[in-house]
Write a structure and sequence with these properties.
14 helices, 312 residues
């Protein structure tokens, strides 16, 4: 089937450029969206593009929606998928079109903003490290972006939950469920730099294992994290209406755009819809690690010669 799939994709690419007369950039955009579906299909045992059902496509769209992809982007992806299956029908690869009843989402309510990689760099790079809280804030934003955490997960993140050697953190999510999330070398570096300052703080009782502390030695609050990010965005000249959740959306979006597996992204985000025994059986820790190392901008851009092997 692999050779046949390659042949079909090549013919569809030629169809877009020659018969539909699309520009190279537009054709590439169509193929980029189609490749999202193909990666989903490849992750499902026994599934291929010629035996896809309406139910399968609905499952794919649900996963895209769960990642925080905007309704407008979902509509574009659906349009590309429908175009591909109309092509398969015309070329007699299929007798029925599984996308015939597929509807695009209503484009209305805006989802939280997503920052570009450049804006992420500007946001974190604008932090004043000469201030007492500077390195803490830098490490905190790196962790938010590199791991896609909810703000509640960030403020509860434990010092003992950071595994420097393995480059993973243990996150306690909704319903007290724990999950393993890979962490970038860049974020680990910033945490290590922050620990120098953290060790000088007199820690309040009950906060001994809390990673990110305020100046009084207690854990941060959600409101404090919101305030830090809002103020930092102003300093960085970013006019988007952002929040801690923006970092999470950016994490998912950048991984998806980079070609990461949908299931792996959902595992790292800790979505309820995929935290089942069956999923844990099929996606192991090394798979998640490979996905984030291969597709997250912080790993692609980080100096590969930097390795951190000391634990904690």
């Amino acid at each position: 089937m692999a050779d046949k799939k390659t042949d079909i994709i090549n013919k569809y690419t030629a169809y877009l450029r020659l018969e539909k007369g699309l520009s190279e950039n537009t054709a590439e955009a169509y193929m980029d969206d189609l490749n999202k579906l193909i990666r989903f299909i490849d992750s499902e045992p026994g599934l291929n593009i010629l035996i896809l059902t309406y139910s399968h496509i609905q499952q794919f769209i649900t996963q895209i929606s769960d990642l925080g992809i905007s309704a407008r982007s979902q509509a574009r992806i659906i349009s590309g998928i429908k175009s591909f299956y109309r092509f398969l029908l015309t070329e007699k690869y299929l007798d029925t079109d599984p996308t015939e009843l597929l509807e695009s989402p209503k484009i209305g309510q805006k989802l939280p903003e997503v920052l570009t990689e450049n804006e992420i760099d500007r946001l974190i790079g604008s932090i004043d490290l000469s201030k007492a809280e500077g390195q803490r804030n830098r490490a905190m934003l790196e962790v938010l972006y590199s791991c896609g955490l909810r703000v509640s997960e960030l403020i509860r993140l434990q010092y003992s939950a950071v595994y420097f050697d393995e480059q993973f953190i243990t996150v306690k999510g909704k319903g007290e469920k724990q999950r393993l999330v890979p962490i970038s070398g860049k974020a680990i570096k910033e945490i290590r730099n922050y620990l120098i300052d953290r060790h000088t703080v007199i820690v309040q009782k009950g906060s001994e294992d809390t990673l990110f502390l305020n100046r009084r030695g207690a854990g941060l609050t959600r409101v404090m994290v919101f305030h830090i990010i809002k103020e930092q965005a102003k300093i960085a000249g970013i006019r988007k209406n952002i929040s801690p959740h923006t970092m999470r959306h950016s994490f998912a979006t950048h991984l998806l755009e980079g070609g990461a597996n949908l299931r792996a992204i959902q595992m790292m985000l800790g979505h309820e819809s995929i935290t089942t025994t069956e999923i844990y059986t099929h996606i192991d820790r090394e798979f998640l690690r490979r996905e984030i190392i291969a597709h997250h901008p912080r790993n692609r851009n980080f100096d590969k010669e930097n390795h951190y092997t000391e634990n904690g």
